[in-house]
Amino acid sequence: QVQLVESGGGLMQAGGSLRLSCATSGRIFSGNAMAWFRQAPGKEREFVAAISWSGDSTWYADSVKGRFTISRDYAKQTSYLQMNSLKPEDTAVYYCASTASGYDCAGYGCYVKSYEYDYWGQGTQVTVSS
Question: Whose CA, among 3, 12, 30, 53, lies 20 to 30 Å from 24?
């Protein structure tokens, strides 16, 4: 059974930093891409960042580019989202997601759609005050 468990959310003032973690259990942390999505109250879930199974490629939403960094640690089977220069509009529930092992996508627009991801965490709240 595959499980994703997020941690690291909380309350932060604008301009501050937080690091989210996503611990993975089960035989999934190989050959899979990992991503973070977020959902603000009254809004649809949106893509934030993704990282390929090799870690060589990353993708970011324009709204977080230059402020957020996604990474993964294979030994710990954990992915991370380092969030710097936080803004009130970053307030949302953040979800970790994983594709199935061996999932591959080529071309424009890959790894940014929620339907590409088979496994999801329960979410962690991030609140940024102004």
Answer: 12
